[in-house]
Amino acid sequence: MTIGIVIVAAGRGERVGSPDEGPKQYRPIGGRPVIAHTLGTFLSWQRRGPIVVVIHPDDEELYAAATAGLAMSDITLAFGGDTRQRSVYEGLKALSATEATHVMIHDAARPFVDHAMLDRIAEAFDNGVDAVLPAVAVTDTLKRSGNDGLVHETVPRSGLYAAQTPQSFLLSEIRSAHEKAAALRRDDFTDDAAIAEWSGLSVSIVEGSVDNIKLTVKRDMTMADERLSANALLPDVRTGNGYDVHQLVPGDGVTLCGVFIPHDQKLSGHSDADVALHALTDALLATCGAGDIGDHFPPSDMQWKGAPSKIFLDHAAKIVREKGGTIMNADVSLIAEAPKVGPHRDKMRENMAAILGISLDRCSVKATTNEKIGFVGRREGIAAIATATVVYRGSQA
């Protein structure tokens, strides 16, 4: 199973204020465009597959500016139609050209989607469900009125839910449903779950999130900006450091920051011995007092033998987020006589950015030799020093 993502960002967002400010998905909240917040969450989700972003044909420059610095190597761009339904259909067609078997369809204007919700949807897929709708039970008393403005009846709220996105499906089934609707010129569906229901698919509900609001009117944008800027009074900025070293032994290459570099030696270790990601994992854990890599992935546990160190760094990043942290910067310094790191630096930074869910300009990789002094100078090992900066939800105390 490969879960692809379709981000729908082709709308004009006319209800959020002056058209001169541009579509809402490109307007800033918390200092970054809405779509950058949304994409960042999906880019950093461990189970995500290929991503298709559907934009308006006139918005290429806006999109490029809004996503500058994000790790975009496996994102496909598609152009939407004159309705959301048509735009989703274009996104599904583009995603069908990838290895994706399932799809999450999400509105770019819902920037507060979180990994916990995505995990609940993926778990439903794991359990054999083919159509999943995240939704929140209606808690307000509902009234039905007529054109006269008077209350005609009170509607029982039992069993009523407010639908959210990402609405998620077996890719082949939802694409077929959209194709059928297009062939019959049915363009009156309000969401993809409605198309699925109409075509005969059974849609299961999973718990949504009250925070997963859609930015629709100007007040929504203001509230989102205030929420993301809430820590400005007393920011809780923390810096963590990590250090690791692994011995060099005869071999065919080393893995550093997830990049395999051919070499006449390899690094010895229980996992893939990626000394850079190990040091960065410790640096992140240090920002919230969560121990070190050995506490979470003990070398005595055989399930981690040969494991890619991406798993360790992703775990540390998840702990940071669960504790209210936002990763701002990651810096790794490698100390080695060989191999040369420079030709691989950009790919290393891209890997770090993708794992941590931050922009490329917030990731740094540097390398130096030890001037042939000590164990590094004798090519007996490679050392790494890492620093991570994380902002936690501040307080006024």
The chain-level mean pLDDT equals 91
* Terminal Cα span: 47 Å
Number of helices: 12
* Global outline: elongated
* Helix content bin: 25-40%
Provide a short characterization of the protein structure.
It contains twelve helices and 19 strands.
How does the SSE layout of this entry go?
Elements: E1 3-9, E2 28-29, E3 32-33, H1 34-43, E4 48-55, H2 60-66, E5 75-79, H3 84-95, E6 102-107, H4 115-126, E7 131-137, E8 142-145, E9 151-155, E10 161-163, E11 167-170, H5 171-183, H6 192-198, E12 204-207, H7 218-228, E13 236-250, E14 253-256, E15 259-262, E16 265-267, H8 275-286, H9 293-296, H10 310-322, E17 325-335, H11 345-356, E18 363-368, H12 374-377, E19 381-392
Helix pairs in contact: 3-5, 5-6, 8-10
Features:
397 residues; eight-stranded mixed beta sheet; five-stranded mixed beta sheet; 29% helix; elongated
